[in-house]
Amino acid sequence: MRDHGNLIDGEWIAGGELRTNGNPSDANDVIGDFAAADAGQVADAIAAARRAQPGWARKAASERAAVLATAAAELQTRAPELGELLAREEGKTRADAVGEVVRAAQVLHFFAAEAVRAIGEKYPPVRPGVDVDVTREPVGVVGIITPWNFPIAIAAWKIAPALAYGNAVVFKPADLTPASGWALVEILHRAGVPAGVLNLVMGRGSVVGDAIVDGVDAVSFTGSVPTGRRIAARAIGNMARLQLEMGGKNPFVVLDDADLDIAVACAVNGAFFQTGQRCTATSRIIVADGIHDAFVDRVKAEMAALRIGHALDSETQIGPVVDARQLQTDLDYIRLAREEGCEVIGGDPLERPTKGHFLSPALLLGADNTMRSSREEIFGPVASVIRVRDYDEALAVANDTPFGLSSGIATTSLKHARDFQRNSAAGLVMVNVPTAGLDYHVPFGGRKASSYGPREQGSYAREFYTTIKTSYILS
Fold this sequence. Notes:
The protein has 475 residues and is an alpha/beta fold. The protein has helices at 39-58, 61-77, 79-90, 94-114, 153-164, 178-191, 205-215, 225-236, 260-272, 289-305, 324-339, 372-375, 391-399, 414-423, 462-465; strands spanning 3-4, 6-8, 11-13, 17-23, 26-36, 121-123, 130-138, 141-145, 168-172, 198-200, 218-222, 241-245, 250-254, 282-288, 343-346, 349-350, 358-359, 362-367, 382-388, 403-404, 406-410, 428-431, 447-448, 451-452, 466-474. The termini are far apart. The active site is at 245.
């Protein structure tokens, strides 16, 4: 099917216009046309969600769990097919894309179990004969706005807990990757989500996103810091609950005592794989003086061997940049780094048999932490290398950023590893593993400008998707 409508109140609805979705590996590959909703259709979706949500919340938790488990099983079965679709529209390699679909299935399985987990509390009475119960109830209608870099996994880890805890959803996927979001919704719809409980509205953020924020009880957003701040300012006027996951400028520290093989593997993977288009990607590599030259030489050798190409080519390790605009942003920052005094290794546009947005990874040598290229999120396969004297300077440089999402360290010293774990100003800390790469059953989120509101994923998701009620009962 080439034309894909919005899902509103259980019906697939055409939009005001159709927007064509293409392949960043091959400009000649058209994935399909996707309906762009207008503000009126968003209002209809929110109204449908309000009508449907109380009934969904009253269903037995086992019924909600069964729907999520059914959808999870289909995702798992269709992972190769859906992974190919994801790779075509986003540009990550087939292996990474299939892995992302499997991750989405794992998330749905997890929240199928969470739906039936007892999450209330009973307190001993202070007053004779008065019992105290603390229970959790759904927030109501949740607006979910997701980014293009993990178009099925992030959508899953927001939608699954919302549905598990009895909320209704109005979901907007990213403009660049509507196909993966559409596929996830279609699977959940057929798995038995009632009409109105899950609504899909595609289109521009300035139209669809704003209309969602204005009308829902809670907003879960992943994207850029400027957009997140704008959503926060808009949502607070409606007293909507907020969960924002935004940018990062994630440090990876390499100490003199590091295992060089581990340090290089972590840095190359964290900085360049999935084309650096991960909010947890390594973008500042902070290297102690004694190991700096050997480390850089090894990284340069690894970079030269990386295979960049079409996302569906089995030999490809790194696919294209997601679109022409993001490619230009990457090139602009690489040019800026040269102007700031960095030596740039790589960072060149590449030609391949198909017309796509291919870029060789870039290593910015001689960087310091005051440069714009070291402080602003690039969201591409670009990493600065910052030379420091010792661990104390490395920790100070790592924390000197407006962001606080992920951080990492390569060291064989338990003392330094534990100190970094305690004192790194980030929500995620990695020791001898890449800064990118997370599990589905543990909390995810950062500090400072990276995150706002309760954590995502795992059992911590209930903090956002439920509200607490305290009841006093005379027995």
